Predict the structure.
Amino acid sequence: MGADARVSGLGAGRGAAGPRMSSRAPRPPLQPLLFLLVLLAAPGARAAGYEMCPKAQPNMLNVHLVAHTHDDVGWLKTVDQYFYGIKNDIQHAGVQYILDSVVSALLAEPTRRFVYVEMAFFARWWHQQTNATQAIVRDLVRQGRLEFANGGWVMNDEATTHYGAIVDQMTLGLRFLEDTFGADGRPRVAWHIDPFGHSREQASLFAQMGFDGLFFGRLDYQDKKVREEMLEMEHVWRASASLRPPAADLFTGVLPNGYNPPEDMCWDSLCSDKPVVDDAGSPEYNADQVVEYFLHQAAVQSQHYRTNHIVMTMGSDFQYQNANMWFKNLDKLIRLVNAQQAKGSRVHVLYSTPACYLWQLHKANLAWSVKEDDFFPYADEAHAFWTGYFSSRPALKRYERRSYNFLQVCSQLEALAGPAANEGPYGSGDSAPLGEAMAVLQHHDAVSGTSRQQVADDYARQLAAGWGPCEVLLSNALARLSGSKETFTFCRELNVSVCALTQTAKRFEVIIYNPLGRKTDWMVRLPVTKGAFLVKDPNGKSVPSEVVTVPSSDIQGPPPELLFSASVPALGFSIYSVARVPDWTPQFHPLSPTPLKPKAHLLTIRNKHIRAAFDPNTGLLVELENLDQKLVLPVEQAFYWYNASIGNQYSSQASGAYIFRPDQQKPLPVRHWATTRLVKTSLVQEVHQNFSAWCSQVVRLYPGQRHLELEWTVGPIPVGEGWGKEIVSRFDTPLETGGRFYTDSNGREILERRRDYRPTWDLNQTEPVAGNYYPVNTRIYITDGKVQLTVLTDRSQGGSSLRDGSLELMVHRRLLRDDNRGVGEPLAEAGADGEGLWVRGRHLVLLDKAEAAAAGHRLQAEREVLAPQVVLAVGGGTPYRRGAAPRKQFSALRRELPPSVHLLTLARWDSRTLLLRLEHQFALGEDSGRNLSSPVTLDLRDLFSAFTITQLRETTLAANQPRKAASRLQWNTNTGPVPQTAPPALDPIAVTLRPMEIRTFLASVQWKEDGGTNPS
Ligand SMILES: [Zn+2]
């Protein structure tokens, strides 16, 4: 296809198909004006990627058979076990045999087609093939007989994934296809047939990646019924409230039967349905029956769809290991059904693909309905809401989010230090292994928490293995950029206050790398042994520090921690030195723990911006004050647990890895009160709350911090009495919220939620708790229109507002029953010691005037997702280059990015090219206070000090095609036409970002000899 292929526009070329008039179903009439526009904008002749589609019959019902396999990148078995077909006693599945078998079957009969999705498997298989097989497969791809759909490394989850990680994993998969097959292999259709509910942001990202349409399998059973009746199984999803249509418009189709074949028509080696027997002499002859049954199925299905094309997914999980079985029967089915046309049948059945089916829908030229909300939560029947997995495996969810942070640091330093990052004094460093592991983690049974335990362990193993080459890379890069070869140390267990170097050395250096485009201040906390320390900043000036010991009844209590505040420039680092000093330095207050007895007055902690008050009798947080905005709000926070259902008289449904089903609507408090201890020093104020042996929390304020930090520790959840438990942290306020609350979509745009309500159908609510849970990736808030209470999370969790003024987040769950959705194991994480997993995490609470809230939560959420990376060194290293002076502070930016701009990606693309993504991180109209929702224009020419950009090309979001050459099918909607605008011309001097816009660039660069200039 030509790179400049354009689909729409006046005079777009030949062959414009008129609107279809022959479909069987009633449909809204086209308005005359719209009708004219439809004709003018009709699909052009050079429809990129659709040239190889099979011929359909214009006056018949066309049944598109899509032969496919759904290959989970880990679920009951690990990725490697699935690929090689190991442990077939758990599940009979071997992806290598599927691909071998499909290629042979496609070669045997040229009309056959197949669609493949998961690049994590395909790329591995490809690299094991001979040149001859690769040549054959290239031919099959060029001829459209083997089509790739989606093309991500995995088919990612949509509820528990962060948009940055989704973009990364799609980029990895689509790049493999582009490098291997060029435009022939470029998927036109997104294919999310299994994820358990669908996010609006995912659709927006797909649109921005250039996909023409999306098909999926799972939606709420009530929603599906309504859509079938209203003929809205296929529609246009307007997936952004900020991006101008059609930038985030995505044609979206709901598949008729999940992703499975019609009942009794599964002809895989894993199924036992009867094959087609067309030998009239056989006593098993069934050809007539099969044809009749198939025609009936097609007729029924077509009643729910608007065109004279319908699709049937002929395949399922790990099918086609013996592809011949499927194809042989499908060959016969097609021949037998189409033979009926001679007797007057108006049904035409054909081998097709998702793209070829989509192309026919587009040619139908209908005006489609528009959807603006999302497909959460998903219930497959009454009492079965798939809202448990929003929180399942909270430790893995945090490890994944933390690894996203580390991967961005690793990728940035690989880009900033150039080739010296990959080969240097510390060996070979590489971001790719962590990049691949992170891509695998996005799979809809990975970060979602719905795999078996042995598979979850393997996901964690993959992440840990990916960290190693990144640590080498960081060492190489930091040595080059700092000019000093140090003995770098990475303390991976700082989250549990363990670090051998800082707990033993008399002196050491702390390198703090800031991945944000703006300078940041960060409180460094390092485990040490008792004593005093002198901390010096990059200029050799001593800075306030202190050692805090938190008293504990436990002999193995937490070690003392050294605290100091570090200031780090944009996209750069600061190096602080720490030395143990012999004498106690009294100017900084040591710990003053105050075990609290009931007192008459409130206990408070405060800084310049925030005051938090606690009830002296219960020890609970009861009031929050924003001192800058003069806001006071009663906020009571405590922990509660739901008793996990094991089934009851209404339904046998149990709570499990996927499904959340509490036994009762009202959760029980872990305890009505907490014992508390107060720690007040000059650098931190903390209230330590102990609710029970397995539930505690530290409420924390640092100087200058505009939010209250709640660090909770939950587990091992006791289940000895035989009750599974699901633990929530709940905030109760008097805010009048009218049943409404707000949650983010994959960490980006915000969606309004209403209790017991769905925007597009009349909900029959069967689960008043679980049916009101929504995915929270980074934030949830409630507001009365004047005041907003926002809680930021450090991982994905389920959240809700079950009463006005109330907000809750599920932090941990431990269950004793399986929920009967296939995983076959109760979610009962035993932890390393087998006693039950304990989990630690943080909630950041912000109280703001509504109009000022976005500025607060957007910028703080950015700091959480891309937190500074702490690297330690013994000190006293040798010069990196002879004569080079060591550099204690560095910024790769010549000027900071404005607050509305987020540096989403800075990564190496090839030996001379970097991948750069800049994002406007505010939504349209969201920030009325500081004007952060306005478009912003950047000059990219000399923005970076570490390298010079010699050439800049803009691409689509996944960087697999030039933006100016990319074209998408445009769809007509029943809300009227939208103006088509050409992509903005690229001018590196003035790159404008509009609210929520991401722009993606490939930049050819030359690295500076000295690694860049010193900003300070
Ligand atoms: Zn799946």
User: Anything to note?
Assistant: The chain has a mean pLDDT of 92. DSSP finds 16 helices and 53 strands in the chain. The longest helix spans residues 453-482. The two ends are 51 Å apart (CA to CA).
